[in-house]
Amino acid sequence: MALVKLEYQAKPFCRKWKIAVTTRKIVLIGLSGNTREIFEAVEAEFEISAILSDDPAHAPDFEGVPVVPLSQAHDFPDAQFVFLIGSQTSYRQRAALIARLAIPQDRYARIIHPRATVSRFAQLGTGTVLHCGVTLTSNAVLGAHVMVLPHSVIHHDVRIGDHSLIGSNVTIAGAVEIGESCYIASACSIRNGVRIGNGALIGMGANVLNDVAPGAVMVGNPAREIPRRS
């Protein structure tokens, strides 16, 4: 997992980060709510060459950007990529799909919304996406292709594994460990020091007070395990 500390940019009253862009072209993988919410931030930093999607319901373009099949990923040799596919139903498929695309990892961009705030002591993996209003504090470590949706707060010393998705308005207290390919739904709270195993799903609004087993589905306040739907 490639981690990076990004170029520091000081601004009044807050500290933010910016990406040192090496190429201005980018291809978005997936056309979903995630794409729509981060589109303007990406557009401000890159020329968006295309959006990759196999959904036949999608129009041939989005905001003037052509929508083409995933099979055309290698038709853009001079572009970077960002992976935006992921929901409560597809989160466990993200790693396999990224592997199937066979795009070199160094061609995935890190996307940080200009209204996200990231500690200079945090570390971000390849392909990290931070949406508007995200706060990432000291010594947090995010793995490759982690996506954090708007207005979530990730506190000190948190570790989030590759390909995991964090919903909007989530609060993750200090020293929490979240495994790979997890889905943390909107408005969850996770107590400090909790460990969440690979592939777990935390339902909307859950209050997680204890460790979560790999693959478990947790709901409620306090969070309790329920059977996973087939």
Compose a concise summary of this entry.
The protein is built from two helices and 27 strands. The chain has helices spanning about 35-45, 95-100; strands spanning about 5, 10, 15, 25-30, 45-50, 60, 65-70, 80-85, 110, 115-120, 125, 130, 135, 140, 145-150, 155, 160, 165, 170, 175-180, 185, 190, 195, 200, 205-210, 215-220, 225. The strands form five sheets. Strands 9-12-15-18-21-24-26-27 form an eight-stranded mixed β-sheet, with no helix packed on it. A six-stranded mixed β-sheet has the order 1-11-14-17-20-23, with no helix packed on it. It has a six-stranded parallel β-sheet with strand order 10-13-16-19-22-25, with no helix packed on it.
3D structure, described in words:
Belongs to the transferase hexapeptide repeat family. InterPro entries: AcTrfase_PglD-like, Hexapep, Trans_hexapeptide_repeat, Trimer_LpxA-like_sf. Pfam families: Hexapep, Hexapep_2. It comes from Thioclava indica. Helix content is about 10%, strand content about 30%. It has about 230 residues and is mainly beta. The chain has two domains: about 20-105, Rossmann fold (3-Layer(aba) Sandwich), CATH 3.40.50.720; about 110-225, UDP N-Acetylglucosamine Acyltransferase, domain 1 (3 Solenoid), CATH 2.160.10.10. The strands form five sheets. An eight-stranded mixed sheet has the order 9-12-15-18-21-24-26-27, with no helix packed on it. A six-stranded mixed sheet has the order 1-11-14-17-20-23, with no helix packed on it. Residues about 5-25 have low confidence and may be disordered.
